[in-house]
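Why do we care about 3D structure at all? Because function follows from shape, and shape follows, mostly, from sequence. That is the central idea of this module. The next example makes it concrete: a single protein chain, its amino acid sequence, and then its structure expressed as tokens.
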Amino acid sequence: DIKPQNIIVDSEGNVKVADFGIARAATQQTVNATVMGSVHYISPEQARSGQSDERSDIYSFGCTLYEMLTGQVPYDGDTSVSVVFAHLENPVPHVKDLVPDVYPALDMAVYKCMQKKPKLRYQHIGELMEDLRRALKDPSGSFMAGEMPEDLSETRVLSPRELALLKHRQELRQKVAGLEAGEEDEEANEGPGFHMTKLYRLIAAVCVLLIVVLVVIIGRNMLSFLRESKTALETTQATEESSTVT
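And the structure:
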């Protein structure tokens, strides 16, 4: 059961882990998650089903390392249940968020220890020890044993090509932001007079359109009136001619 309360240091500076009874029971996968020590260091799979293996201890060790480096537990809450849910659902925290000057390699190692999925953690304690030794020699290194978590790229050292691409993207974003700012300034500089002119033009266009429509309507009515008058006149003339003949 890996947690600070079970780690002791003797008078000669040797570090030892206590509480082996629970540790042996855990390997038999028979202990309920609520029995597995403090909820602040419990792995998601232990909290979910009570089952555990070496990778569960690596998760708990990652929580312990996190507390050693930051001075606080990775997940906290008002109740044990809320802490357990945090282990299951909340994003994995980075040491660098609380300790900005932490060595990137050490931050990555702790981050990998605390992955929710066991397959994304160190599969054996030997892998973790190897990376910690590398971190001592190369604190800013981008090495990482085993499978990499998807978002570890946030903390690793970028290659020159990646830095160039990142710089290019930032320049494009700045250009787009500059264009948008220019459009806003142009609209601001137009002032109320410009908008009034646009309004007058719109009103004038509407008036012209109404006049055209009115002329068309009047023209159609006049044409219809003339046709009816012509028809009536022809009818009258025909009637008069018929009367004269009679």
